[in-house]
Design a protein that fits this description.
The chain is α/β, with parallel strands linked by helices. It is about 30% helix and about 15% strand.
Length: about 210
């Protein structure tokens, strides 16, 4: 009996780094279910897919420290020296802090921001007086000033951003753009809709694979 070669992408083992997904402000881990299912269907194993959940009312610095511990656990469990990070919205800020200030620069291969307020969003003004993470997302916050000071995309990490012209949460829309990153524009998609859109999901998978 002749052996039939496995030619489909889904049937082949994926040798990419583990992926850590980081949701945004008031987000939930389940928001990445479509993306995780897509990655799994295209060769990623369950131990390569990790969703980091957190209390988004904390400061992004505190969240970054918890993300650091989480990534250390992923690396220990998988034996990987580096991970890829895929973020939505505010998740891009704590993960960038981790890369820049907590040693992530040597532990991250690819970093992706989907609808991220990388240079702030004026929409955060409504909650900035009550919630520290909101205040940190304001365009003129000291947190963002320090995060973007010098090189906003340091090290040998591959940085990619996705922004939608119809995103009503990130204003101005150009806020997502980072010098030194591969900055991409999507079709007209809502802020949350970007993370489950097939075109965006496939593009993100191509970036980190």
């Amino acid at each position: 009996m002749l052996a039939v070669p496995l030619t489909s992408t889904a049937a082949q083992a994926n040798t990419s780094e583990p992926v850590v997904f980081v949701h945004g402000f008031s987000g939930k881990s389940g928001q990445f279910s479509t993306m995780v299912d897509n990655f799994r269907a295209n060769g990623y194993s369950d131990d390569q897919l990790h969703v980091f959940g957190y209390n988004s009312y904390l400061s992004n610095v505190t969240i970054a420290h918890r993300l650091s511990d989480y990534i250390d656990d992923v690396r220990r469990q998988t034996g990987a020296s580096k991970v890829d990070i895929v973020t939505h919205s505010m998740g891009g800020l704590s993960s960038r802090y981790y890369i820049k200030n907590l040693g992530g620069i040597n532990r991250v291969d690819d970093w992706v921001s989907i609808g991220g307020p990388n240079n702030g969003t004026t929409v955060a003004g409504w909650c900035s007086l009550l919630i520290i993470s909101c205040a940190e997302m304001h365009p003129w916050s000291s947190f963002l000033w320090n995060l973007n000071a010098g090189d906003p995309t340091p090290g040998n990490v591959s940085y990619t951003t996705f922004r939608s012209p119809c995103d009503l949460v990130i204003y101005p829309i150009s806020s997502t753009i980072l010098d030194g990153a591969d900055n991409r524009r999507t079709a007209c998609l809502g802020h949350i809709g970007m993370i489950s859109n097939t075109g965006v999901v496939n593009a993100v998978r191509d970036v980190v694979s």
